[in-house]
Design brief:
By secondary structure, the chain is an alpha/beta fold. The protein is built from 15 helices and 21 strands. β16 (about 385-390) and β17 (about 390-395) form a beta hairpin. α1 (about 10-30) crosses α2, α9 (about 200-215) crosses α10 and α13 packs antiparallel against α14. It is globular.
């Protein structure tokens, strides 16, 4: 496909998507995936009958629990890896495809065919989930998948409008995680100079500030909390960064208020024309998607790749596929992967505003766009949905509230038992540092009112602390992700 594919009419993109979906199922997924072949057979689904996106509703969705095993998670995850062999090729591939393999074998020998299959299907790389609440799950890449990772990276850089001679600093932690490697491969594909610092645990905050000052990047990429911390520290030291105009944030939700705080810091350091981009990605997809340039208080939504995947929005209770723009749970289907393949994967991520298919009013791309108002499933699993004082509390809402308040600098929530007595009542404590001159009594009163409205529970105590104390509590320098919410109710 030509490089302008993301600007083609949606009718054309949709027709191509349906064609690739059918081809992927019949030539790759059903023949070579142990898990999905069993799934299709169990539900008596003829793979050839899935010809359009509309037909996907007949395939039962899967979720993270399908990767988990009490005995051997590694072995179970291999069931999602495409595993072609001579028997499967002869049994499942259509006659014309089989003849191609036989012809190649006759012309160039079996070793050539085996080598070609190995290059396309043999896993050579992996990223993994963080394993916060379950054992980490590995997702394998073949050479084909790594080429796709470059494609996704190049498209991200194009969406962000990165100049070919641009420079970037990548502050995602060194780890087998998608965010770090998607950024690295984006640099390779876009011919972009990217310095990867490894984040706080590798160089520390001062080391990152020195690296930024030396490289003079136009783009800074990383986890929101750590990017904010580095920029705030640099500003307090009087460092000027007029060259830094674009901030790309990943691994968590990015409210408008947070974007404004980041932009304000950069303006204080002499920058102008600032853009702050949110991204969305998850390990199972082995891909990430981004917003295009807009005003700070506007989100374009995440631009997807319809030649590589299908996104659906479903009712999380009934599984019914929702219409354009409707709220629901995001479901992901790969249509051009090898290695570990997920098909109709329930992300658990709830999207307010769903998916829209009209051309982007900001950049003109015609691809489907996912609303950026996403409540991450991983956040809910990481103790963001819990009973506090007898009420079921969604901490995604309060986290969004705190990050969106422009007068809040850093914060941490602690949940504990009164007097550390396991039989006592729950206590909800907020430690917070503030920006500028704020009436503390008024701030505490109004914040508690908003918390009660948002999560039906108020804070027992709000402690306003110096920034350094809050930073120490959240372990900004040593943790992959800042420890923003701590549940100490099980501690003594």
């Amino acid at each position: 496909m030509k490089k302008d594919i993301l600007y083609r009419p949606w009718k054309e993109l949709k027709a191509n998507q349906n064609k690739k979906l059918h081809h992927f199922i019949t030539r790759h997924l059903y023949p070579f995936s142990p898990f999905y072949r069993r799934l299709f057979d169990k539900h008596k689904i003829n793979p050839d009958s899935i010809r359009t996106v509309a037909d996907l509703s007949r395939v039962p969705p899967i979720s993270k629990k399908d990767f988990l095993s009490e005995t051997d998670a590694a072995r179970k995850s291999l069931d999602f890896v495409l595993q072609p062999d001579e028997e499967l090729i002869k049994k499942y591939l259509p006659k014309q495809e089989l003849l191609k393999f036989l012809g190649l074998g006759l012309l160039r020998g079996k070793s050539y065919v085996k080598g070609r299959l190995g290059k396309e299907y043999r896993p050579i790389f992996l990223t993994a989930t963080t394993g916060t609440t379950h054992q980490p799950i590995s997702f394998l890449y073949t050479d084909h998948d790594l080429e796709n990772l470059k494609v996704y990276g190049k498209r991200l850089m194009d969406v962000f409008n990165v100049a070919k001679d641009g420079r970037a600093v990548n502050m995602f932690p060194y780890a087998p995680h998608l965010a770090f490697w998607q950024t690295v491969f984006a640099g390779f594909a876009a011919d972009l100079f990217i310095l990867s610092t490894g984040g706080g645990r590798t160089l520390g905050t001062e080391g990152n500030i020195r690296s930024i000052a030396k490289v003079k990047p136009q783009f800074l990429i990383g986890v929101p909390s750590y990017v904010y911390h580095v920029l705030k520290t640099a500003a307090e030291e009087g460092t000027k960064m007029p060259f830094l105009k674009n901030i790309v944030l990943g691994a968590s939700r990015v409210p408008k208020g947070f974007k404004k705080k980041v932009a304000s810091i950069l303006m204080d350091m002499g920058s102008s024309g600032i853009k702050v981009f949110g991204t969305y990605g998850f390990t199972e997809a082995r891909a990430a998607w981004g917003e295009c340039p807009t005003n700070i208080d506007v989100s374009s939504g995440y631009h997807t790749y319809p030649d590589k995947e299908v996104f659906e929005i479903i009712d999380p209770e009934t599984g019914e596929v929702k219409a354009e723009g409707e709220d629901g749970e995001l479901v992901y289907t790969s249509i051009d992967s090898r290695g570990s393949c997920v098909f109709r994967y329930r992300t658990g991520d709830l999207v307010r505003g769903g998916i829209v298919y009209s051309p982007c009013s900001h950049c003109g791309r015609t691809v489907p766009r996912i609303s950026s108002d996403i409540v991450r499933a991983s956040n809910i699993r990481e103790m963001k949905l819990s009973k506090i004082k007898g009420s079921l509390v969604n901490f995604n809402n309060i986290e969004y509230l705190l990050d969106n308040r422009e007068e809040i600098d850093e914060w941490q929530i602690e949940i504990k038992k009164k007097d550390n007595d396991p039989y006592e009542v729950d206590e909800l404590i907020l430690y917070v540092s503030l920006l500028g001159e704020v009436n503390k009594d008024s701030f505490i009163r109004h914040l508690n009112q908003e918390a009660t409205s948002s999560i039906d529970v108020s804070f027992n105590r709000i402690e306003i602390l110096p920034r350094e104390e809050v930073l120490k509590k959240i372990e900004i320098e040593v943790s992959v992700k800042a420890k923003k919410i701590l549940d100490r109710r099980g501690e003594r």
